[in-house]
Amino acid sequence: MLTQLSESTEMYLKAMVELGEGNVVAVGRLAGRLGVTNVSANEMVHRLTDQGLVSHTPYKGVSLTKTGQAAACNVLRRQRLWECFLYEHLKIEWARLYELACALEHATAPEVTEALSIFLGDPKFCPRGNPIPAADGSFEPLIGVSLREVPVGATVHVLAINATETDALRYLQDRGILPGCEMSVMEAAPMDGPLTLRIVGQD
Amino acid sequence: MLTQLSESTEMYLKAMVELGEGNVVAVGRLAGRLGVTNVSANEMVHRLTDQGLVSHTPYKGVSLTKTGQAAACNVLRRQRLWECFLYEHLKIEWARLYELACALEHATAPEVTEALSIFLGDPKFCPRGNPIPAADGSFEPLIGVSLREVPVGATVHVLAINATETDALRYLQDRGILPGCEMSVMEAAPMDGPLTLRIVGQD
DNA sequence: TGGAATAATAAGGCCAGCCATATGATTAAT
DNA sequence: ATTAATCATATGGCTGGCCTTATTATTCCA
User: Fold this and answer.
1) Are residues B165 and B102 in contact, defined by beta-carbon separation less than 8 angstroms?
2) Nucleotide closest in space to B51 (CA vs C1')
3) B121 to A97, A170, A195, B116, B118: CA distances (angstroms)
4) Residue A181, Cα to own-chain centre: how many angstroms?
5) Can you name the residues that pair with A188 across neighbouring β-strands?
6) Who contacts A157 (Cβ-Cβ below 8 Å, separation ≥6)?
7) B29: helix, coil or strand?
8) Whole-model pTM?
């Protein structure tokens, strides 16, 4: 059924979940995320549509079909299980987990995925704090708040990191901004400008 | 330097080591092993030559250059380390190790390879009995004898399995023909016909 | 030495996934 | 209502890796 999707296909599907705001994603955002041109993303969206993985309403956006959703969760599961393995057992640097696990995920057969999950003790979250979809495809997204929506002065716990680029992750890592960390918002510059944070336990 | 080789390139290089009889391999045998036509293998050999990975003497065969040798050993190292991991930690069926590890090997960054080796305790042999090249590329092939060369009546220990196809491996697995097993050659049919073996400990 | 088997090359084609450039269509905001 | 920005589409092109179907070289063996 999941006839074996190409690496590229898996990346598109995963990207859709990762930036899936309410399920409909603009093709342009997909393109940006995947580092391809809008034209290329558009072509690919057509192919994905033909395969029944997404549905595309021109000028509106793309959304995952049932099948696409299942496939995407499966990719996410592999990705995040590998992140756990690389972090806990191979002691790989936190900031590189996403990148390195991403390469492995496309090469992982179902029996390896499930054996890996068992080996790891069926973890429910990856080292970036994101939930790991279950083997049956069930997947409950985090209930949390984007940092941008936190009022100035409030103190929060970091639930998960959404960034995926190694550089961005390293930036956070260097400042100790990891899941579980506690911080308060000191200042928010206008026009989506920089946030000034105080990390609890640092000065 | 090892600029990142394509999956296909890595497969060709690995195949050359695996069936490297005295280092010069006929293009036809490469094609057979990789399941492509002779024409395709020939084209690919050209590309590999252009990349300085192999050297090809028409009508004679192909051999690995220094660079190609190093790259091939590196692939082999990844392959066999993953075999160890899949077998010892994920409890994957012996006959499927090659196939599943093969997929992972191409997606494995250097730091993952080395961290994996440490995690596994720097194993020297894979579950098929073949040596794992060292991180520096050093690699001493096994000293053993092909079963076809064993005289009738002799008793031998199985040092390593060379087969890579899952079906062939499963055939051996089902008969308990694994590294370490002891057997004697009862009969050898002419013209490279079947061998009749007695496995020590079985009747 | 001549023929069979094997190897190499040439020519044309396919597919996925990307690219650029250019032209329409739609949306949203003034 | 007009316009800028975004999105879609058409066209043509590229690369890697594979394919088939010839045709031509070479090797090896009888």
Assistant:
1) no
2) D16
3) 22, 29, 45, 9, 5
4) 19
5) A195
6) A180, A181, A182
7) helix
8) 0.93
